[in-house]
Amino acid sequence: MESLAQLEALCERLYNSQDSVERAHAENTLKCFSVNTDYISQCQFILDNALTPYALMLASSSLLKQVTEHSLALQLRLDISNSCSQSTCVFAIYAFHVCVSLITYVLVLMFCSVGNYLINYLAKRGPELQSFVTASLIQLLCRLTKFGWFDDDRFRDLVKESTNFLSQATSDHYAIGLKILNQLVSEMNQPNPGLPSTHHRRVACSFRDQSLFQIFQISLTSLGQLKSDVASRLQELALSLCLKCLSFDFVGTSIDESSEEFGTVQIPSAWRPVLEDPSTLQIFFDYYVITEAPLSKEALECLVRLASVRRSLFTNDAARSKFLAHLMTGTKEILQTGQGLADHDNYHEYCRLLGRFRVNYQLSELVNVEGYSDWIQLVAEFTLKSLQSWQWASSSVYYLLGLWSRLVTSVPYLKGDAPSLLDEFVPKITEGFITSRFNSVQAGFPDDLSDNPLDNVELLQDQLDCFPYLCRFQERARMQTGDKSEISVIEAKLAWIVHIIAAIVKIKQCTGCSLESQEVLDAELSARVLQLINVTDSGLHSQRYCELSKQRLDRAILTFFQHFRKSYVGDQAMHSSKQLYARLSELLGLHDHLLLLNVIVGKIATNLKCYTESQEVIDHTLSLFLELASGYMTGKLLLKLDTIKFIVANHTREHFPFLEEYRCSRSRTTFYYTIGWLIFMEESPVKFKSSMDPLLQVFISLESTPDSMFRTDAVKCALIGLMRDLRGIAMATNSRRTYGLLFDWLYPAHMPLLLKGISHWTDTPEVTTPLLKFMAEFVLNKAQRLTFDSSSPNGILLFREVSKLIVAYGSRVLSLPNAADIYAYKYKGMWICFTILARALAGNYVNFGVFELYGDRALSDALDIALKMTLSIPLADILAFRKLTKAYFAFLEVLFSSHITFILNLNTNTFMHIVGSLESGLKGLDTNISSQCAAAVDNLAAFYFNNITMGEAPTSPAAINLARHIVECPTLFPEILKTLFEIVLFEDCGNQWSLSRPMLSLILISEQVFSDLKAQILTSQPVDQHQRLSVCFDKLMADVARSLDSKNRDKFTQNLTVFRHEFRVK
């Protein structure tokens, strides 16, 4: 770079140029600043001398990237050690560790220097910088602080340095100080890509204990000082800082910040004096009054957090009652004045604040607060206005209904003479809700999914889940009929009524009401729905299946059937509910379960015959059908019905047109899963074969199709449908006998079609996915259904078919070019293959030694192609896609458990890659995956211990290969052991038992490695704790022998539990 001016010009082009080629050139030229540590001083020079904001932005962002990615530098040890020869390995590793220690020390000093420089730079030039430059510099400063938190105590002085800005005379410096604290809290609360999750939690916990309370006090002090400040900029920063402190992840639960829902706020006990001080709550109520949106909304958000603090935080009940009274007074004053509630965001946040009373306080506490009667009346009036303004407040009503439902459910437990006044207000709210829902229909919304409340399923269920408690509270539901001049309006109103009845029937028991009276009421409500069905599927209504209003009504009826079944038809209700059936007999002549089931099944059959394009109605119908068929008693009763006999014998597209609709193809699996339940309930080979005849005709048609015509759309649709159908049938086989019926029907006659299909359609995931998913289900040995006779070769024959299928798919998909959506195009099929192979290998129905004994390459070929597929996927992609992650690590667990020789015979680079991926899995947040990785590591370490550590010399080829791998990479086991200790000691792991297994195996491999690791961990802890923690380590191995038998493992696990508890005690 010849001059600073040239660099500034390049930066201008990098950030502002419209020419992509010019931007790319600038980016490539300036890349060195962000990847080379030698340029850190150059970045400092740019900050000192550059005049344009874009040059300053380059320097700041480059330093940020340097800081973030330098934490990864120490991981290069593994790669370097892989390149060492055996003769120089020991010396190279020793020298490298010395260098790394020196480099780490130098980097710490360098970044300390950068941190001090940034503080001085912001103090001197901060007020004159562009806001985006200031923000970038502050982010860099806070990132430095977080990454160096445990490296040098000077990194922890940032809070003190920030207060110096607050004491400056200018408001610009004050703003910079608040911005630094805002960014610091955010940085400490959010995981970083360059920082392991275990280290992030350690830093966050240390920051919480040492600095967060001080920052919260600073934010409160700032709010007090800035109350009269006419400029809202500083007020906004101070409010934002308060909210960030109150929203901190205090206990490491990793709450989704995009969600509005959270549990109790676990504020530390040290904050108690400030929270019990009335001025803390009052400052936020004051700011709500004196500010405009969006600042007023942030003040409400802070109040929502404060209203959610844990009960145990307060000194006693009196302090908590005082806090509650203050909350009620503040919210009452807002309702009295209506201040700020015309703003939608304020309105929604205020409803959330009222909703927190539902979560954190009991009715008995509320009624004893002075002024309760005024407060509850104002809340009731506010609720009614909200219900009337359903278009404006639809997403906010949920919090209000939740509050009222919680209040009425607490009435039976209310003691004392203080009146709740709910009798006066709840009926009005119940009526207001129903009326407002009718008004939403009368508004005449167009039939699209964006506007109609009936289509917002999640919001609909949230509101209706609260509603039954309000209805039950009065034991009546008065609903008005509206204008019946328009059918769609009537259907929509009826849909609301049916949903409400369904919600009432769902809650069978209600405190304070007799069960008999509830059954009679439910019978009368249910009779109206059952009568409605006769009307909605006859006359003019039978021509309206394409209308959205008709579909909404039928979905409401299906919801009613689901709730009614669970309360009055399910297996638990077969001998109860006498009052309900007595009343239904009087009203409709339905005196037992069988007659009622016939009505439900009739509606199911009608929906499946008449709906061809509404996937929502089809899926909902099939869900109800499956619930009935899978119940033991209800399933037996279904077989007595003529409608069911017809469905089982005639499941073709002629009778059920939805089977021909491509958009409903996924529904076929559920349809045939249900039919399978019904077929196998009798376990009759004759009935099975006759029921499978429609699928047999599809097989015959596809098998007779020549190769030249096998790539047509007709074949494609038929093959997709057939695979989905077969998967449903396979899912229903839950015993050796039923599985045997399906196996004998498929093998060997029809298995070649699967191989033909996968070979011709490899490049079409729409075909390969259902085909592979069927095979994944077919090889799954659930409930020990794959148990063949001792003389049967079926297990071996099945695996040979699996091998052919995986080899055919894998060899072809690997040769295909990558597509834009690589997950759908390649990864999805690959992870299903991993699942197929893992299930087959772990199914315990194949003697795999037979393949090698007789020279059959079925096993070897399947493992080879599976390995190639795993190596073709970058580890970052494996960890990025959840289903791929689960399948990959489940496959590795099986390999390390039953086929470890295959792993050990790989070359060292491939072996290290696979074991390295296990270490990544151990660090993940998914405990199931972590446990699978732990089991795999344990099998590997146990193999080493039993065959190398305890043996005289490795003799088997597998043991020799493992010894060679470890010689070429001696840090492998120590690194994994270190990771396991960090997880157990510094994280709230839920699978400690699983992690303890590989820990013992790794410790027994080398006691010296364990001693070195013990020393490292002690060094990272405060000096005054060393003696206590050293004793903890000694106890860890107390009474633990050098063996891996079950008793010794259990002893170590017990010791580890005690060790972890004592280690974490402060």
TrEMBL record:
Residue ranges constituting the Exportin-7/Ran-binding protein 17 TPR repeats domain according to the UniProt record: 473-666
Keyword Transmembrane helix attached: yes
GO molecular function: nuclear export signal receptor activity
Gene3D superfamilies the record matches: Leucine-rich Repeat Variant (1.25.10.10)
Keyword Nucleus in annotation: yes
GO CC aspect terms: cytoplasm; nuclear pore
Chief location bin: cytoplasm
Pfam families attached to this UniProt entry: TPR_XPO7
Subcellular location: Cytoplasm; Nucleus
Keywords per UniProt: Cytoplasm, Membrane, Nucleus, Protein transport, Transmembrane, Transmembrane helix, Transport
Membrane-crossing residue ranges in chain numbering: 91-119
Superkingdom of origin: Eukaryota
GO biological process, one term: protein export from nucleus
PANTHER family xref list: EXPORTIN 4,7-RELATED, EXPORTIN-7 ISOFORM X1
Recorded family membership: Belongs to the exportin family.
Designated name of the protein: Exportin-7/Ran-binding protein 17 TPR repeats domain-containing protein
